[in-house]
Amino acid sequence: ADRGNKPHVAVLANSGVGHVVPLLEFSKRLVVGHGFRVTFLVVTTVDPTPAQDQLLNAAGLPRDLRVLGLPAVDPASVVPEDSALTRICLILSYPRALVVDLFCTQALDVAGELGIPAYSFCTMSAKMLAFSLYLPTLDREATGELVDLPGPIRVPGCPPIRPDDLLDQVKDRENEEYRWFLYHVSRFPMAAGIFLNTWEGLESGLLRVLREDSFYRQVPAPQIHAIGPLVHEDGDAEGLRSTDIECFAWLDRQPEESVVLVSLGSGGTLTTEQQVEMAWGLELSQQRFLWIVRKPTDASASATFFNVGRDEEDDPTKYLPQGFQEKTREVGMVVPSWAAQVAILSHPSIGAFLSHCGWNSSVESLAKGVPMIARPLYVEQRTNAAMLAEDIGVAIGPTVEEGRKVAGREEIERVVRAVVSGEEGKRKRRRAREIRYSSVESLSAGGSSHASLAAVCEDWKAKCRGCEEV
Ligand code: UDP
Questions:
Q1: Is the CB of 305 under 6 A from ligand 1?
Q2: pLDDT by residue (tens digit) across 161-184?
Q3: Would residue 58 be called left, alpha or beta, if left means φ above 0 and alpha means ψ between -120 and 50 degrees?
Q4: Is 360 in the pocket of ligand 1 (CB under 6 A)?
Q5: Which DSSP letter does residue 322 get?
Q6: How far is CA 273 from the centre of its chain?
Q7: Of 148, 158, 273, 279, which is most buried by a Cβ count within 10 Å?
Q8: Residues near 300 by Cβ (< 8 Å), separated by ≥ 6?
């Protein structure tokens, strides 16, 4: 086909890995599955992490998907070290372009002026989106802090949310992260539609609510399109590092469904105390594990966000508890900083995923049928963890014993054992498998996610029929 006549979609993403991953997959799908040309605009930072670099410069991107870096911003110049969300929002407030990413709603105005339909892509669950759409109302009506409200938060038609399970950003209304979050979610109704990386088999109840008139009467919202799962399959050999190859060689030697993968997203970092408990909990569990480990820090749970994988000399023996690696040599594999998570989750030896419950990681685990151990750290991960455990039934999480600040080693031991080799784990695995089947179904021709994206694509194509160049 003549490239010039293909309809053109612009996608704007912030450079956080958790946003680039699903938006890039979404763009590939538009190009490969629906005949669009896509310009992928990404707000780069001056010094991208190796993971960001690898994603954006991947050799295998389709020809009609063009990645363009917008003028780079130095994240260190905008706000203090520890506030990843504020930094992302400030960085994104510089350009004014056509926007899709959740934290890019400024560009909805520009798109409106140009008469271009602008859609938002929200890297969150339908449950979290329902809460976010309702937040401006809650903000107007509630007095005091939302976490101090007497009962659970009742988003119209949705299961109640315990204030404790709210994302950190909404726990302090004076905080600038709260103001940024509220600013963007208040603007969601300006979008022509919202894409979500979820699917019917995962969140059917919530998606039904989001389609009901009664919801729209109470909560301003555009149309919601569930198009997931969007999973970045990072298996091509060129993208693998030597540590990845070692991981696969090690995984190949382990029995089926016997290994717990421990990974905390693109920036998740434990405190020294949490790391010590995690290490000895794994050791006590006597289960096999593959741990993507980072240097602990007491500064912030997202401390590594802008720096992950930069330290080429990263040596876990320097920061893991003394004796840990010797004691676990027979059963454990430790990888510093970063590994090919999706490819690892696809390996038959993986039996469970101890995750921070970032939405991409959760989607990836379920698209691969792997049950989870929920260890949330920041942003909306606690809400996701509660949902995965209670609403969906694929996860269990360690509880923090009274009088302690962090989950102790015995508790880590208990949950790891329960999911990898206990009866409860079997139930969770069965449920995760069901969800995996539903994900395959939803993406097949005629499946709900496929149909949902195809309908929007048809609409876009109909709108630009007759245009020479869109
Ligand atoms: N990821 C990875 N290797 C790692 C850690 C993370 O490939 O060692 C990927 C993971 O597969 C996911 C993304 O980074 O696609 C993290 O996104 P998520 O939403 O789970 O968490 P966030 O990083 O936004 O907290």
A1: no
A2: 998 888 888 889 999 989 999 999
A3: beta
A4: yes
A5: T
A6: 25
A7: 279
A8: 81, 82, 83, 84, 269, 378
18 alpha carbon – ligand 1 mean position (Å): 6
**DSSP notation for 6-57:** S-EEEEEEES-HHHHHHHHHHHHHHHHHH--EEEEEEEEESS--HHHHHHHT
Count the Cβ atoms, other than its own, within 10 Å of residue 208.
13
What's the pTM?
0.90
| Catalytic hit among 34, 64, 101, 168 | 101
- Spatial strand order in the sheet of 193-196: 119-122, 193-196, 223-226
The 8-class DSSP code of residue 400 comes to P
Of the candidate ranges 8-17, 21-30, 70-79, 315-324, the one whose mean pLDDT is the lowest = 70-79
Active site annotation includes 101: yes
Q: How far is the CA of 109 from the centre of ligand 1 (A)?
A: 30
CB of 244 within 6 A of ligand 1: the answer is no
| CA–centroid distance, residue 337 to ligand 1 (Å) | 11
Query: Atom 7 (ligand 1): residue with closest C-alpha?
Result: 341
What residues contact 402, with CB distance under 8 A and at least 6 apart? Answer: none
Q: What does the chain come to in residues?
A: 470
